[in-house]
Amino acid sequence: MSTTKKLVLVGNGMAGIRTIEHILKLAPHAYEITVFGAEPHPNYNRIMLSSVLAGGTSIEDIVINEWSWYEDNGIKVYPGDPVIRIDAERKEVVSQAGIRASYDELILATGSQAFILPLPGADKEGVIGFRDIKDCETMMAASQKYRKAAVIGGGLLGLEAARGLLNLGMDVTVIHINGHLMDRNLDLPAGLMLQRELEEQGMKFLLNKHTEEITGKHRVKSLRFTDQTVLETDLVVMAVGIRPQVELARQAGLNVSRGIIVDDYMNTSIPGISAVGECAEHRGIAYGLVAPLYEQGMVLAKRLVGAATEGYEGSVTSTKLKVSGVDVFSAGQFKDAADTRSIRIQDDVDGVYKKMVMKDGQLIGAVLFGDTTDGASLFSLIKSGENISGREKEILLGVSAGGSGSGPSAAERMAAMPDDEIVCGCNGVTKAAIGDAVLNKGCNTLGAIKSCTKASASCGGCKPIVESLLVHYAGDAVGEQVKEGICGCTSYDRDEIVAQIKEMGLKTVKEVMNVLGWNEPEGCSKCRPSLNYYLGMIWPAEYEDERVSKFTNERYHANIQKDGTYSVIPRIYGGVTSPAELIKIATVAEKYDVPMVKFTGGQRLDLLGVQKENLPKIWEELDMPSGFGYGKALRTVKTCVGNTFCRFGTQDSIEMGIRLEKKLDKMVAPAKVKLAVSGCPRNCAEATIKDLGVVAIDGAWELHVGGNGGVKVRAAELLCTVKTDAEVEEWTYAYLQYYRENARWNERTAAWIERVGLDHVKKALEDREERLALVERLELTLGRTVDPWKEIIEDEKLRKNFTPLAGTQPAAH
Fold first, then answer.
1. What three-state secondary structure class fits 75?
2. H runs (alpha helix) in 339-493
3. CA torsion 311→313→319→320, rounded to 10°?
4. In angstroms, how far is CA 352 from the centroid of its own chain?
5. Which UniProt keywords apply (predicted)?
6. How many Cβ atoms sit within 10 Å of the Cβ of residue 691?
7. Does 646 carry a binding-site annotation?
8. Is 327 in contact with 351 (CB distance < 8 Å)?
């Protein structure tokens, strides 16, 4: 019988999983670990949600620990299955799905939820908070159907939501109850400067406004304010604060105030139960910033493994942010009072504002706008409480008290920074941790520090300080400033990796990592999928696809949805189907009680809400090829009616679209690829916003490339004009293969074309012999592909992966 203790973590977020990471480092075999998460996603960086919403990154890119991390560390995980009851006497938790897990130690890291104002109409469709991936997806979906958005709350979260909605093409108005933006972080001058900057970006603001009612029949139609003015809107995002999620703890009998009350070692009122993160209340404070939560996690981890540790005494916090591209910093008591003095500079031309607030000779608060370089040093002075009398100008303005000379150099500022100073707020990395990486682990480049400590690996706002610390610790030993690799595991970029694979004949992901000296022997969620693609692209006849190096969607050949179910999208060539095919789809959907059947934007049918164990059975009964709606592959070839029926059509777009889709079916690529064929310049198939679009003109075809109709809309550019159907195929195949061979992993054709330039692509394809060689290589690859649905149906071993095992959550493995 195993004597290993059982540890259950309720909450799959940043604070809880960081605690688990510490436990695994300190005592990897101390506990048998089980994790329950309310969301159907692995642990991800919530701070980066605004970047996802704005289109700057993808959901996959903000994942901190991929599913493979849980598996590699022997962690049993239940995503999308929140715990609904704690039996403290029996030391057992019960999940929504009925899973029972006993524990010796229980950690509650339930986080917080967006506060929804109790307004009349707040329960209407189109009223949401901004807290998780689901909220991002809701906003993205709304932007496709609606035009106007209102964000209630002019703090950081509200402005990030507004920026993202603006990027999605919506008309955005921010409503704020106070007289200037971010009044909890900025004073009036800085708030007004921020407002001017954001107005120039296209945001609208209603300040000193109190919302009275949300109107509309079923969906929101407008906001009515207390002054009886009205704002029409199709979407309302509430960003007015967060509330710790404590209901589970309250029902279990724990002492709860605003949060779950904990002591300095994160103990709750019931032995064996700890709390950490935004749900915890320590000395009357429930923190909402990452750095304090990570500090709590370290103390808790040490206590749970029996390591010596001082208690958590609370955190002095500062806020260093990037709001819609504008750097802001604030710390301490930055607003003026009767017993304070302040010094400030304001440069409206360059958009820079700096302010220090002093009391009794000590720095007690600061605000920086536009230039936040001195944020860390000012925060250190606030925490240290040293007397700065006579040095105020020197500190803020960079001049001596006499008005000449210079203030402390960057080296002096770095030396004066306390070791426990949090440098990277996103990942809780201290100055001491960076020093240890440089001095004891050989990290002498920014990329190496990022890989080792995660400092500057998220928002990047701390990069200048990390670079200064690198110089401070490494001195002349600083490595050459080289371009960063494809991820923190390596300094090699895409082109170097591909060249080395070809030159040395590397044939597996593990071999590439070993031979090229990966920093992390197992790689990460960024490099493993990219290496898997590059190897398959280079060695199509020899390489065996690595399922473990793929994301969940591509492992199970279906898109995982927010509730943990999957969607099935069969291939419908050119968007053309038959009554028999429609009957077959309807019969299967009815038999397996599929909650929703939806027409997609790519002229296909999507069966939504399918349970994982039903996927192979549905595929088998549909007896249709996979539509690859989940993969980095050819998605759709959209067509219009063309000259088959349309009186304006000049060419047979349906026949051309079906021909291309059938021949390119199962083509994998660096990113998803969408095609369209329009039968005349009216362009009903929207071919000029596709990765490749074919448009018929009188007696010829135009090929347009590099388009995108998503978050960042980009019109395609004309690659060439050809006369015959055979030429369309030749140029299409050559272009797509050249993209496959030269683009970076996860780089859409729109981004690739912008990076390399259309002229470069034209030159690469102008020689017909080279075009035909590219066509031949693509046909070789396509000739060796198999339909994944059919393969799983026929292979009992693969099919078993879709059978839930007792005590496991299917989506996690």
1. coil
2. 375-384, 392-397, 410-416, 431-441, 446-453, 463-474
3. -40
4. 30
5. 2Fe-2S, 4Fe-4S, FAD, Flavoprotein, Heme, Iron, Iron-sulfur, Metal-binding, Nitrate assimilation, Oxidoreductase
6. 28
7. yes
8. no
Q: What's the pLDDT tens digit per position in 135-192?
A: 998 998 898 899 999 999 998 889 989 988 988 889 999 999 999 999 888 889 999 9
Using DSSP bridges, classify how beta strands 700-705 and 717-722 pair: parallel, antiparallel or unpaired.
antiparallel
- CA 249 → CA 36, 109, 113, 241, 436, distances in Å? 15, 10, 15, 21, 38
Q: How confident is the model at residue 808 (pLDDT cuts 50, 70, 90)?
A: very low
Q: Specify the pairing of strand 260-262 against strand 673-678.
A: unpaired
pLDDT at residue 404 tops 70: no
Between CA 131 and CA 242 the distance in angstroms is 9
Q: How much of the chain is in helix, strand and coil states, percent to nearest 5? A: 35, 20, 40
d(CA 164, CA 53): 5
Amino acid letter at 426? Answer: C
User: What is the mean predicted confidence (pLDDT) over 713-742?
Assistant: 95
- Please tell me the distance from the alpha carbon of residue 251 to that of residue 253, in angstroms, as a whole number: 5
pLDDT of 643 reads: 87
Which of 745, 743, 739, 742 shows the shortest CA–CA distance to 549?
A: 745
Rg of the chain in Å (alpha carbons): 29
Contact 650, 700 (CB under 8 A): no
527 is in an annotated binding site: no
> Of 66-70, 221-225, 646-650, 777-781, which range is least confident?
646-650
Give pairs for 405-408: CB < 8 Å, separation 24+: 408/377
Q: Closest Cα to residue 799, out of 790, 808, 812? A: 790
State yes or no: 459 annotated in a binding site. Answer: no
753 within 8 A of 761, measured Cβ to Cβ: yes
**The predicted structure's pLDDT at residue 461:** 66
Residues ≥6 apart with Cβ < 8 Å to 59: 41, 44, 52, 133, 136
Question: How far does Cα 144 stand from its chain's mean position?
Answer: 20
Determine contact, residues 137/127, Cβ cutoff 8 Å: no
Per-residue pLDDT, 721? 96
Edge-first strand order for the sheet with 5-10 is: 76-78, 31-36, 5-10, 105-108, 273-275
Binning pLDDT at 50, 70 and 90, where does residue 810 land? very low
The CA angle 203-207-213, to the nearest 5 degrees, is 100
- Domains annotated for the chain, with CATH where assigned, are 5-111+245-305 (3.50.50.60), 114-243 (3.50.50.60), 494-550 (no CATH), 551-631 (3.90.480.10), 632-799 (3.30.413.10)
Closest CA to 553 of 625, 627, 485: 627
pLDDT of the residue at 96: 95
What is the rounded CA–CA span in Å between residue 420 and residue 291? 11
What does the alpha-carbon distance between residue 531 and residue 550 come to, in Å, rounded to a whole number?
10
SS3 356: strand
Question: What is the 3-state secondary structure of 401-431?
Answer: CCCCCCCCCHHHHHHHCCCCCEEECCCCEEH
Q: What is the mean pLDDT of residues 621-628?
A: 93
